[in-house]
Amino acid sequence: MQVSRHGVEDFSSYLVEMTNYLIPLLKNFIPMKTTYYGQSCFSIETEGKTLLFDPFITHNPLAKHIDVNSLKPDYILVSHGHGDHTADLLAIQKNSGAKVICIAEIATWLGNQGVQDAHGMNIGGGFNFDFGRVKMVNAIHSSSMPDGSYGGNPAGFVIYAEGKVIYFAGDTALTYDMKLLADENIDWALLPIGDNYTMGVDDAIKACDFINCKNVIGMHYDSFPVIKIDKEEVMEKFVKAGLNLKLPAIGERLLL
Ligand code: NI
Ligand code: MN
Questions:
Q1: Of the ligands numbered here, which is closest to the C-alpha atom of 146?
Q2: How far is the CA of 84 from the centre of ligand 2 (A)?
Q3: Largest CB tally within 10 Å, which of 109, 147, 166, 226?
Q4: 145 C-alpha vs ligand 1 centroid, how far in Å?
Q5: How much distance in Å is there from the Cα of 2 to the middle of ligand 1?
Q6: How far apart are CA 85 and CA 37, in angstroms?
Q7: Which ligand is closest in space to the CA of residue 220?
Q8: What residue ranges of the chain have pLDDT lower than 50?
Q9: How far is residue 229's CA from residue 223's CA, in Å, rounded to a whole number?
Q10: What is the pTM of this model?
């Protein structure tokens, strides 16, 4: 049988088209691995890279069983300068050579600490890294470095990788700006729920409506007496609101 050259070309371009169409679809079924390290510290493994958020481990008594030297991230994302988000930043960066993704002022501060290749961004800006895209978004909070230096504005991150969208809110109040994320198709939101320093449970539930996302991992609770929560009560509130809340144990691994 003779197949015309035209037919073969049509068929191979059809295959390429189908592959381009199917791969992003299939990626939706491949879970992303995340590990909780306490307070607002998480790692996410995606596209063969490990992203670590807001490292605060050695000063967190609840995270005593985590060996900070075992963490070798490729990237460290820092939402703001407060100690409960940066206490282990320099040590882990030195240990791993990770690139730090943070607001411009923290990148400058890191430069003064001898970390030369931090990737400074600012609110509203996105950048395509080798694992996916990161967009820096608004957070309503404050920010200064542990040594008192100016830390710029606090921030959150939206991560687009492996066909998934993850929102890491950082330390923030409930804000109408979250409504800007409603059409981003966020798969999972990492939201502070501890109250006092950030939004509490009721506002976090409202935030889920603003960002149009039902899957939540709670963070920024229990590390200090003023942000202690009653896990059962919190779970109940989220369930009543029709939301899927995860409160992983410190060191626990979840699939997103
Ligand atoms: Ni803070
Ligand atoms: Mn904090």
A1: 1
A2: 5
A3: 166
A4: 10
A5: 70
A6: 11
A7: 2
A8: none
A9: 10
A10: 0.90
